[in-house]
Amino acid sequence: RYGDFVLYRPQFKSNTYLLWLGPFLLLLLVLYLLVRRLRAANKPVDVDAAAMAEAKQLLEEKETGK
Questions:
Q1: What's the half-sphere exposure (Cβ side, CA atoms, 13 Å) at 21?
Q2: Which residues contact 13 (CB under 8 A, 6 or more apart)?
Q3: Residues 10, 15: Cα–Cα separation, whole Å
Q4: How far apart are CA 33 and CA 25, in angstroms?
Q5: 27, 35, 42, 58: which has the fewest C-beta neighbours closer than 10 Å?
Q6: What is the pTM of this model?
């Protein structure tokens, strides 16, 4: 009466591959995206000398109250 998509244990056949493999593929996708995001967040940022000098100047101005 009902199709394989309603059954609790559908047979593993060509039209139910997505039912069986979908959750695992989704988990792998989420893990991949998480690892990619964490690697990008931990990547060091290159700062040139001019930007570093400007940052130091701003910090010194803040400390002296100017």
A1: 8
A2: 4
A3: 10
A4: 12
A5: 42
A6: 0.54
* 3-state class (DSSP) for residue 16: helix
Structure tokens at 16: 């139910």
Name the token pair of 30. 């989420």
Judge contact between 19 and 3, C-beta under 8 A: no
* Cα(40)–Cα(64) distance, integer angstroms: 36
Q: Which residue reads 């570093």 in tokens?
A: 52
Give the pair of three-digit tokens for residue 57. 């100047």
Per DSSP, helices labelled H in the chain are 17-41, 49-64
Q: Which residue has the tokens 């990547």?
A: 43
Burial 6-18, CB ≥16 within 10 A → b, else e? eeeeeeeeeebee
